[in-house]
Every structure is written in structure tokens, then in C-alpha cells.
Specification:
Elements: H1 8-15, H2 21-47, E1 56-60, E2 66-68, H3 69-85, E3 88-93, E4 100-101, E5 111-119, E6 130-138, E7 151-152, E8 158-164, E9 168-173, E10 178-184, E11 189-194, E12 205-207, H4 218-228, E13 239-240, H5 246-256, E14 259-262, H6 278-291, E15 295-297, E16 307-308, E17 317-320, H7 322-334
The structure holds 1,6-di-O-phosphono-alpha-D-fructofuranose (AFP).
1,6-di-O-phosphono-alpha-D-fructofuranose binds near residues 120, 121, 244, 275 and 281.
Length: about 325
């Protein structure tokens, strides 16, 4: 008889001992709350075309991206879920310029959540994969709590993502490995399907928006040229896969190895411009990937050492298999 699958709640309960005591209840409550919201988001995505939820609301968000109806709805759903969890003192969201304070949950043990509720939303209208990315940081009892989100990625207590693809998958870390769960749509429960994820030391696939090739740092261009240059003995060329949704590209990289990269636009070398947001895209994914035995770099150093000074700050990222990311850094060094 097959063993009874472990639910997300059971797994979180079993991980409590690895958490600092003051955050244990908050982390369990908040990740549980995010999982409940993810079930609703998955259902809403499946019905979006039928409920007139596709398309844009006609404006741009603080990062200058076109705002989709589901971005706004996802933000409200996440805020309600975090409020109900009782463990979140403030939400830093892609869809809000300033942190949203939740004073009712404030206190020394409460957490600040940084979240992109519907990441990859330009995929929505073509029925492509999208995701939710989240990061939990201590509020340190600050009031307002939002500013506690600023600081290094190493300060994260937990992080993870939900990928809405053919199946809905939630991956989380509390700094004790990375674990993946698949939603059983019948019961509404996330079940452990990918325990202790370990990213292969080296991969065969890279993911990057190659349309930006001419704006990259010389080291980045030379590295991608290298990955594309055939060398049978070395396992090249690598294959290219790119979905336009960070969650889908990181999830593939986590399971199969290789690289996901979003380097800065270096058209003006004096002012490199990154695209992805540090607090709710780059830092949480770096935490998850490191916990799976991989590496996350800006090209010049470890992503988790970057300190955020603004809520919607951007950062470059090269993440994935240890050896592949180390080689990318080597190409940057040689070209600087
Ligand atoms: P959207 O949420 O605006 O679609 O942006 C998605 C994203 O932040 C990230 O999930 C993707 O990896 C990246 O942007 C895609 O960017 P490009 O369209 O420039 O390749």
C-alpha cells in the first residue's frame, strides 16, 4: 500500500524545531495562509477567461509594468489571506508603492512578507505559466513594520514560490532545505512530492531573454556564446528554455539544473539597469536555490549579501547549478 502523503501543514509542523522560537508560529501561520490563497489563485486562473478576468486594468504599477486585472485581484487576495493568518505585520507587494501595514498582527514575533502575488502576468492572456513568490522577514516589533523588509537577503526567515502550471506546485524553505508540494485539486491540500530538492551540480539548459543580448555586460555575452558553442566532450551546446515567468524558469532549473539569468542592461556601463525586483523576486529565489545546493549571483557576488534600501529595488541575477553559476562569474571576472 502506498504511504500516506505528507501534507504541507504536517511538514511545516515537523520543521518548527529548525526555526528561531520567536518566529516559529508566525512562519507556520503565514506559509499556511499563503498556501490557502494559492489554492484560490489557482482556481481563479483556471476560470479567468470565463469570468472576464483576463486583460489589463489600463495602468502601470510602481515598477512601470502593465497592470493586469489578475495582478490587482491577486494582491487583494494575498492581503486578505495574510491578514487572516495573524502572523503578518506588513506586506510589501509588487502592486503597492508603500508597504501595507497590518497593525492587528504586529508584535515582536510578527513577520513582514514581501510578495509578488501574480508574477509573470504578461503570460496570463496566452494561458502561460505564472507564479507567486514570497519572502518572510522578521518585523523585529517595529512600528510601522514595513521598513523591516529592507536589509540583506540573509535576513530572510523563509521564502518560496507557487507555480501555476499544468499542476500547482509550492516550494518553500525555512533555511533547512527546499521542499516541494503539489496541490491535490480535489482535497485542496498541498502534498509533499519533492522532498529535499537537490539541484544537479551542473546542467544542460540555460534560460535568459536573448533578445537583450546587445545590452548585456561583455562577460554575460561571452558566457552565453560559450554555452552555445558546440563541444561534445564538455556537454555543449546547452539548450535554451525561457518562459517569461521567473517562477517557471526557476522551477525547471531547480529540478533539472542549469541556469536562469536576468542580467542588467549595461547599455550605459556607468548605470547598469536590472529588471527583476530584489525583495520579492531575486532574494527569495536565491534563498530557495541555495537551500537546494545551488548558487545565486549578481555576476559579481552572492545575491543574498545584497542589501535592499528601497522596496522596489531591482537586481541582476544568475542562479542555478553550482558549477554553471561559478563559470558565469568567471566570465564576468575575465571581462571586467
Ligand atoms: P511580468 O510579471 O510583468 O510579466 O514580469 C515577469 C518577470 O518579472 C519575471 O517573472 C520574468 O522572468 C521576467 O519578468 C520576464 O521579463 P522579459 O519579458 O523582459 O523577458
Amino acid at each position: 500500500m502506498a504511504a500516506t502523503p505528507v501534507t504541507l501543514s504536517e511538514h511545516l509542523a515537523s520543521q518548527r524545531a529548525h526555526l528561531p522560537r520567536e518566529h516559529a508560529s508566525g512562519v507556520v501561520a503565514v506559509i499556511g495562509g499563503i498556501a490557502r490563497v494559492a489554492v484560490v489563485i489557482a482556481q481563479e486562473l483556471a476560470h479567468a477567461a470565463l469570468r472576464d478576468r483576463l486583460g489589463s486594468v489600463g495602468g502601470t504599477n510602481v515598477s512601470g509594468d502593465e497592470v493586469k486585472k489578475l495582478d490587482v485581484w491577486g494582491h487583494e487576495a494575498m492581503l486578505a489571506g495574510l491578514r487572516a493568518s495573524g502572523g503578518c505585520a506588513a506586506l510589501v507587494s509588487e502592486e503597492a508603492k508603500e508597504p501595507v501595514e497590518i497593525p492587528v498582527s504586529a508584535g515582536a514575533s510578527a513577520l513582514v512578507v514581501c510578495c509578488d502575488p501574480v508574477d509573470g502576468s504578461s503570460n496570463l492572456d496566452v494561458n502561460g505559466a505564472v507564479g507567486t513568490i514570497f519572502s518572510l522577514r522578521p518585523s523585529r516589533g517595529q512600528s510601522p513594520a514595513g521598513p523591516a523588509a529592507l536589509g540583506r537577503g540573509t535576513e530572510q526567515v523563509a521564502a518560496g514560490y507557487v507555480m501555476y502550471g499544468p499542476g500547482t506546485v509550492l516550494v518553500y524553505t525555512i533555511g533547512h532545505g527546499a521542499h516541494g508540494f503539489t496541490l491535490n485539486p480535489e482535497s485542496g491540500e498541498f502534498l509533499l512530492t519533492h522532498p529535499e530538492i537537490r539541484i544537479p551540480k551542473r546542467g544542460k539548459v540555460y534560460g535568459i531573454n536573448e533578445g537583450n543580448y546587445y545590452s548585456w555586460h561583455a562577460g554575460q555575452r561571452k558566457f552565453v556564446d560559450h554555452l552555445r558553442t558546440p563541444d561534445k566532450a564538455e556537454g555543449r551546446p546547452y539548450s535554451l528554455r525561457y518562459s517569461g515567468a521567473m517562477v517557471a524558469d526557476v522551477h525547471r532549473t531547480l529540478l533539472d539544473g542549469g541556469l536562469f539569468m536576468y542580467p542588467a542592461d549595461c547599455s550605459d556601463p556607468a548605470k547598469p539597469k536590472a529588471k527583476l525586483r530584489l525583495l520579492y523576486e531575486v532574494a527569495p529565489m536565491a534563498f530557495v536555490v541555495e537551500q537546494a545546493g545551488g548558487r545565486a549571483s549578481t555576476g559579481a557576488g552572492r545575491v543574498l549579501e545584497l542589501a535592499a534600501t528601497e522596496y522596489h529595488q531591482r537586481a541582476a541575477i544568475i542562479l542555478g547549478s553550482q558549477d554553471d553559476v561559478a563559470l558565469a562569474e568567471e566570465f564576468y571576472r575575465r571581462s571586467s
